[in-house]
Amino acid sequence: MLRNRICAVIAASAVALTLFSASTPAFEGYVEVTNDTGYTIYYLYVSNASSGDWEEDVLGSDVLSDGETIRVDVTNAKSEYFDIRAVDVDDDSYTLWNVDISVRDVTFSLSDLDGNSAAYNSFDGYVEVANDTGYDIYNLYVSNSESGSWEEDVLGKDILYDGQAFRVDVRDAASEYFDIRAIDEDGDSYTLWKVDISARDVTFDLSDID
Fold first, then answer.
1. Which CA distances in Å does 108 have to 25, 105, 117?
2. Spacing of C-alpha 116 from chain mean position
3. HSE of 115 in the Cβ direction (CA atoms, 13 Å)?
């Protein structure tokens, strides 16, 4: 049985640390996760939004009973934005994306149940992707962050030449957050994760090269 507040620490791997530039300081902080689902949570994942995959279960051999809270400390993170997923005793999952843990804690309730229509409204919109890399872009992928995989190349047979922009319309998306990847004529890739396309367009330049 967990105490009302227990600590778990997520340490970034040495590989991830090598990706940090000198101008991007590591983020350190914590998030308190409260279970208000009515069910016991058996697994809890708190992963930096830019990592692209889920980290280890922070509960380990413990459980988070209904009404309880766990404090998760993070160190050497790339940013303050985290994706947080809980899995309960019935194997139902609850996911919150792109949470700024520097300004808010998290309470999971039934409204956060994955696939719940109250939690997932269909999003329609578009994003304009501009090419400022100095190279021509031959492939462009604009995939909803919740899909977990890349969709088809939206350019098809077209080319996004240096200095040009391309508008991508999206319909019936699970959210406004998209992962966007470009591949240039030399096969170099440029990736932006968890872009809120309701609030911004995208310009790829050499600083975005993977």
1. 30, 10, 16
2. 19
3. 2
Which amino acid, residue 9?
Answer: V
Compute, in degrees rounded to 10, the torsion defined by CA atoms 199, 201, 205, 207: 10
Residues 76, 102 contacting (CB under 8 angstroms): no
pLDDT tens-place string over residues 71-99? 999 898 888 999 999 999 988 899 998 89
Segments of the chain with pLDDT less than 70: 1-25, 116-122
What are 149's two structure tokens? 């995989």
CA distance 95 to 46: 10
Please check whether residue 187 is in contact with residue 136, taking contact to mean a CB–CB distance below 8 angstroms.
Answer: no
Instruction: Give 7-112's CATH code, choosing from 3.40.50.2000, 3.40.50.300, 2.60.40.2890, 2.30.30.140.
Output: 2.60.40.2890
Distance from C-alpha of 98 to C-alpha of 163, rounded to nearest angstrom: 30
Whether the CB-CB separation of 47 and 54 falls below 8 Å is answered with yes
**Any idea which fold 123-208 has?**
Immunoglobulin-like (2.60.40)
Length of the chain: 210
Show Cβ contacts of residue 197 under 8 Å, excluding neighbours closer than 6 positions: 125, 126, 127, 170, 176, 177, 178
Q: In terms of Cα–Cα distance, which of 209, 195, 193, 201 is closest to 135?
A: 209
Instruction: Report the C-alpha gap between 97 and 105 in whole angstroms.
Output: 13
CB 100 within 8 A of CB 39: no
What is this structure's pTM?
0.48
